[in-house]
Design brief:
The chain has helices spanning 20-45, 51-82, 87-111, 114-146, 151-157. By secondary structure, it is an all-alpha fold. The longest helix has 33 residues, at 114-146. It is elongated, with a radius of gyration of 17 Å. One fe (ii) ion binds at residues 22, 26, 71, 75, 133, 137.
């Protein structure tokens, strides 16, 4: 993938929702993805790759996956405690994305296909993330705040 075709999100300019802990999680995720993106770009430009280069990317992918599991669990719980009407749709998007991540990690471990990975990290994922935050996350946060969601209690329990 050439540099000109890569979409790299900026944690300071991603869409904002009405709940601060969600925005913080999103900003952390963008940072994790950008770190991984730098490893991918270095890998693409290098002529040879050591085991260490490969495992750095594997670790970056796994850290991103773990972060995303927690991110989605928290939002799912938020939807449950506030009785968000579109719970099923939002949950469904989370599940599809986690399955995609699992597939991505498995494929990377099997084939080390850097172009396949780059395509997801620099194109498919940024589009998905912007759309998801702008629709599902935004509606979830708005609904929670409008219905008097008790953020202090929620954070104590989670
Ligand atoms: Fe989110
Ligand atoms: Fe979400």
């Amino acid at each position: 993938m050439t540099e000109a075709t890569k979409t790299i999100l900026n944690s300071e300019t991603i869409p904002q929702v009405d709940i601060e802990f969600m925005n913080n999680t999103h900003a952390d995720e963008v940072q994790l993805v950008n770190n991984l993106g730098e490893l991918i770009t270095r890998f693409e430009l290098a002529d040879t790759h050591s085991e260490e280069d490969i495992s750095k990317i594997t670790l970056g992918l796994k850290a991103w996956f773990d972060h995303t599991v927690n991110h989605f669990e928290r939002e799912n719980k938020l939807m449950q405690v506030t009785n968000f009407p579109a719970y099923g749709i939002h949950l469904g998007e989370h599940e599809i994305t986690l399955n995609k991540f699992k597939e991505l990690i498995n494929t990377w471990e099997e084939k080390q296909d850097i172009q396949y990975l780059a395509e997801y990290v620099f194109s498919e994922w940024p589009n998905w993330f912007n759309n998801h935050v702008n629709s599902m996350d935004m509606a979830t946060a708005y609904f929670a705040v409008m219905n008097g969601f008790d953020i202090e209690n929620f954070l104590k329990d989670s």
